[in-house]
Design brief:
By secondary structure, the protein is α+β, with helices and mostly antiparallel strands. The protein has 11 helices and 19 strands. α2 packs parallel to α4 and α4 crosses α5. About 35% of the residues are buried.
Length: about 475
C-alpha cells in the first residue's frame, strides 16, 4: 500500500467482489413455497411442447455500455397468452423468469424480445431461452442460446497459459507474455501455499487507462480502484498506465488478483465465506509480502486506531486512513498466523473453510483455538490491548400489553406466552412500566405457518456480502492504496 500523507508508494490491487450467493435462489424457492407456486424457471401447468409452435434460433446482443437485448421469432397456430424470457446469469443460482414483449408479424409469425438497460460487466455470460404459453396452459420453449458481454472499443489480443487467459491491447506481445508468466507463477505460488492441486480458469483483462477499466467492471466500484476480481465470472481486471510500464506494479497487481482467484477456488462453498481480512491479507502477502504495510500498522498502533479482526470480517472502512490500516492489519495477521502456526497450518485452515465451516471451526482445526483466541493472540503480538467494543445495544423495555409477564433475566431473548384462551389475566401479574430495568417481556404466540420462512428470509437477506477495491494514493500516479 502507498504510504500515508500523499507519499508515493506501491500500487495495490483490489480484493474480491462478492461471491456468487445462493440468496436469490433461496428467496425464490421460499417465496414460491409461501405463495403455493414453483421456483423461478420451473414451468407450472402443462409443460408439453405445443403442437405447431416453431422457433427460430434466438439471438442476443451484449455490448458493454449498451442495452442487453434478447429476441426471437416463432410461429404458432394460436395467439399466445404470454411470452417470457428464462435467463441464467453467473450472479444468481438457478434461472429467473421475466415477462417478454410480444408482437405479431407477417405470415402468422410472432416476435418476442426483452431489453435491459445495461449489459453488465465484461465477460459476463448469459444463457437464455424464450417460453410462450398458449390457451389452455400449454407451453413451448425455444432452443437456448448464450451470449458474452464484450468490449469492442479496443483491438483486443489474447494469450493463454495453463490457467490464465490474458486479454490486452496496445502493448507488445513480449510485454503481455511477461505479464502472463507473472500470473502463472502467482497461481503456482498461491495454490502451493493454500494446498490445492487444480485451479479453475481465469480471464484477466488489462486496461491502459482508468475510465475504460471502470466501464468494464460496471457500477459499484470505488472511484480510485486499480484492480478487481469478480468471482462469479472468474474474471479479473487491472489497469496498467503508461507510467507503470517498466515498474514492478503490473506483476504485483496481477499476482494480487490471482491470489484472490486461487483463494476463492480453494474455499468456495455455498454455506459460509471466510472473513474478508483473511482473503485480503493473503492476497497482499503473496503479492508483495508483509513489509510495505508495516508503517501503516505502526501508525495505527501509535494513534490507538487498531480494529480487531472481527471488525474486519466484512467490508473494510471506506475512509482513506482506516482503509489503509485495514489492509495493514490483514497482512500483519496473516504474517502472524504463518510465523506462529507454520505454513502447514494454512492449508488446514483453507480446507476447513472449503467444507463450509464457521470461523471458529476453521481456526480451531488449524490453531487449536477459536477465531476470538486468534484475534486476541494477534493483538497481543503487536502490543495492543483489545479496544472497547462498540455496536448495537439492547433497546430499553417499554410498556407491556395486558396479560404479558416479565422475565427477570436481563438480556434474555423474548419468549412469548399468551394467557389461556378465554381466561382473564391475573391482576397480580399485570405488567408494569419496565423502561430502563433490563427486564424482558415474555409471552408466547402460536407459531404461524409463515413465521419460520419469514425468519429465514430475513436471515438470508442479511448475509449478502460485498468486497473492496484497490485504491490510488494521493499525490502521485505511482502511489496507490487499497
Amino acid at each position: 500500500m502507498g504510504a500515508l500523507m500523499g507519499t508515493p508508494g506501491p500500487r495495490l490491487p483490489h480484493p474480491t467482489l462478492p461471491r456468487t450467493p445462493i440468496v436469490a435462489a433461496l428467496l425464490g424457492a421460499i417465496l414460491a413455497a409461501l405463495l403455493g407456486g414453483a421456483p423461478p424457471g420451473v414451468a407450472v401447468g402443462r409443460v408439453a411442447a405445443a403442437d405447431g409452435v416453431s422457433f427460430d434460433p434466438p439471438s442476443a446482443t451484449a455490448v458493454l455500455l449498451q442495452p442487453l437485448v434478447f429476441r426471437d421469432t416463432f410461429r404458432s397456430p394460436q395467439r399466445p397468452l404470454r411470452a417470457e424470457l428464462i435467463l441464467t446469469t453467473p450472479y444468481v443460482l438457478g434461472a429467473t423468469v421475466q415477462a417478454a414483449d410480444l408482437t405479431s408479424a407477417a405470415g402468422g409469425a410472432w416476435q418476442v424480445g426483452v431489453t435491459q438497460p445495461d449489459a453488465g460487466s465484461v465477460n459476463t455470460v448469459y444463457r437464455y431461452a424464450f417460453r410462450v404459453t398458449l390457451p389452455g396452459g400449454v407451453m413451448a420453449t425455444s432452443p437456448s442460446g448464450t451470449v458474452t458481454v464484450a468490449d469492442p472499443r479496443f483491438a483486443w489480443q489474447a494469450i493463454s497459459g495453463p490457467t490464465i487467459t490474458l486479454h490486452w491491447y496496445g502493448e507488445s506481445g513480449s510485454t503481455a507474455r511477461g505479464w502472463l508468466q507473472a500470473g502463472e507463477a502467482a497461481v503456482t505460488r498461491a495454490a502451493t501455499a493454500f494446498g490445492i492441486q487444480r485451479v479453475a480458469h481465469l480471464d484477466f483483462f488489462i486496461y491502459g487507462a482508468s475510465k475504460p477499466f471502470f466501464d468494464a467492471i460496471g457500477a459499484g466500484a470505488n472511484a480510485d480502484a486499480a484492480g478487481v476480481y469478480l468471482p462469479a465470472t472468474h474474471t479479473a481486471f487491472g489497469t496498467v498506465l503508461p507510467s507503470d510500464l517498466g515498474s514492478s506494479w503490473p506483476d504485483q497487481e496481477i499476482a494480487h488478483e490471482v491470489a484472490h482467484h486461487v483463494f476463492e477456488v480453494a474455499t468456495h462453498n455455498p454455506y459460509h465465506a471466510p472473513p474478508f481480512w483473511l482473503d485480503e491479507g493473503l492476497a497482499v502477502y503473496y503479492s508483495e509480502g508483509p513489509g510495505p504495510r508495516s508503517a501503516d500498522l505502526r501508525l495505527g498502533i501509535v494513534q490507538g486506531r487498531i480494529i480487531p479482526l472481527d471488525g474486519l470480517s466484512g467490508a473494510f472502512p471506506a475512509t482513506t486512513d482506516a482503509f489503509a490500516l485495514s489492509y495493514a492489519e490483514a497482512v500483519s495477521a496473516v504474517d502472524f498466523f504463518l510465523r506462529t502456526y507454520g505454513r502447514t497450518a494454512l492449508p488446514e485452515l483453507i480446507a476447513t473453510y472449503a467444507h463450509g465451516a464457521t470461523d471458529d471451526e476453521a481456526f480451531r482445526a488449524a490453531t487449536g483455538g477459536n477465531a476470538a483466541a486468534f484475534d486476541a493472540a494477534w493483538l497481543a503480538a503487536i502490543g495492543v490491548s483489545p479496544p472497547p467494543a462498540y455496536g448495537p445495544r439492547p433497546a430499553p423495555a417499554g410498556p407491556l400489553p395486558p396479560g404479558w409477564s416479565i422475565s427477570p433475566t436481563p438480556g434474555a431473548e423474548s419468549a412469548f406466552e399468551p394467557p389461556l384462551s378465554g381466561r382473564a389475566a391475573d391482576p397480580s401479574t399485570a405488567p408494569t412500566d419496565t423502561v430502563g430495568t433490563g427486564a424482558v417481556a415474555s409471552r408466547s404466540v402460536p407459531a404461524a405457518p409463515l413465521l419460520p420462512a419469514l425468519v429465514l428470509l430475513a436471515i438470508i437477506s442479511s448475509t449478502v456480502a460485498s468486497g473492496g477495491v484497490a485504491r490510488r494514493g494521493p499525490g502521485s500516479p505511482g502511489g496507490w492504496r487499497r
